[in-house]
Amino acid sequence: MKAAKAGIGLLAAVLTSGCWGQINFDQLTVVSAIGLDPAKNGRVRVTLQLSNPTLPVTAGGGSQARRPFVNYDAVGVTIQEAVERIQHQAKKSLFFPQTKVVLISEPFARRGLDDTLDYFWRETNQNLNSWVLVSTLPARHVLDKAMELESVPAEEWMKYLKGDWKRPLQVDIQMYQFLPRLNQTGFQAVSPGIGPFNRSGKSDIMEIGDTAIFKNDRMVGWLSGEESQIVNWLTGSSRNGSFHTDLAKEESVSFNLSAVRARMTPVLRDGRLSVNVRIRGEAEVLTATLPLHFGDEHEMLRDTLNKQLQLAVEETIDKLFRQYGSDVVGLGEALHRSHPAEWTKRKPRWEEELRGANARVSVSFRIRKSGLLH
Q1: What does DSSP assign to residue 170?
Q2: Which of 17, 71, 127, 165 has the fewest CB atoms below 10 angstroms from its CB?
Q3: Residues 64 and 55: beta-carbon distance below 8 Å
């Protein structure tokens, strides 16, 4: 209750000071989400999801159920121009400090963001704590059609991204973290992806899943959930995970991973850059398609897990460095800390350095659970 009163008092103070002095509460509408799509001739289509808490009264005097939000969209040369057009449509002042999500469509992200997203730096009323998502569908479609448990979809997505219970297979990033990395050579941007749960695109139930990878301000590709988990370990964003191992005769074992610690060390030898990656942790068997006697098979399970995890880490790093030429794990920052002079020399050709870097990966997980598993 005290927090609620403090929030109301703060909002009232804002609205009664400066340029907000002439705006009443009933003239404001809260922007829950911002969607960005490409438009013709290099322009941008902006969709704003606006709170709509009132229910209209029908001619017969009864109430007609309606969604508690409404979406407006407009096209402009800049985001600011499109927002001004939406404000004329909505006939209210737009309140951005409570924006939950900024949704960027994949085609727009691949076009490049630097010339557009500077709006969020310049517009003082923007919420830089909002969460960033890249959509496989047009952003305006997702904002209009998404079906979630929460009445406002952006609320559901925000709670999922900030919650401790979300799967470690997904990354998360807020706008204040995302924007600087669009121009940061040694630690580049990622974003969780969102798209229809049914891959055919016919479902309106959305799933937050794969990871969008950026090189500078431009999206260059996707990582799967398992690959995203490895990125989380290497950046220190998560210490948990899961992994599925394949055994002989089409048998398999799934593990829950915990206490994961990863260390990434840049190494310079004969003028060439390489990276030593060391990952340690604990594992617990979750499911198996065959009965396991840990006294006899403990060592085999441990070695299989470590060997297959090592291969997965090597393939993920290879995909990031050689296929995408993107440093989303912060190898450049690590080199800057350990060898600042070398970083200064190599920074101008960092993409070339990444593509030529070799990774030496060491993985060691200890299996905690013992006994008999059927």
Answers
A1: S
A2: 165
A3: yes
With contact defined as beta carbons under 8 Å apart, do 25 and 95 qualify? no
Q: For the chain, how far is it from start to end, CA to CA, in angstroms? A: 51
Do the strands 190-196 and 93-95 form a parallel or antiparallel pair, or are they unpaired? unpaired
Helical (H) or strand (E) element with 352: helix 350-356
DSSP state of 188: -
In a 13 Å sphere around the CA of 213, the CA atoms on its Cβ side amount to 21
Q: In this structure, what token pair is assigned to residue 37?
A: 């799509």
Amino acid in position 36: L
pLDDT beyond 50 at 64? no
Q: Where are the alpha helices (DSSP H) in 35-187?
A: 79-90, 106-111, 114-122, 139-145, 153-162, 175-181
Cβ–Cβ < 8 Å for 334, 252: no
In whole angstroms, what is the distance from residue 347 CA to residue 185 CA?
7
Distance of CA 87 to the CA centre of its chain: 29
The strand pairing partners of 187, in sequence order, are none
Contact between residue 314 and residue 275 where contact means Cβ atoms under 8 Å apart = no
Rg of the chain, C-alpha, whole Å: 24
Residue 75 has pLDDT above 80, yes or no: yes
In angstroms, the CA 21 to CA 35 distance is 29
What are 211-260's pLDDT values in tens digits?
Answer: 999 999 999 999 999 999 999 999 999 999 999 998 877 788 899 999 99
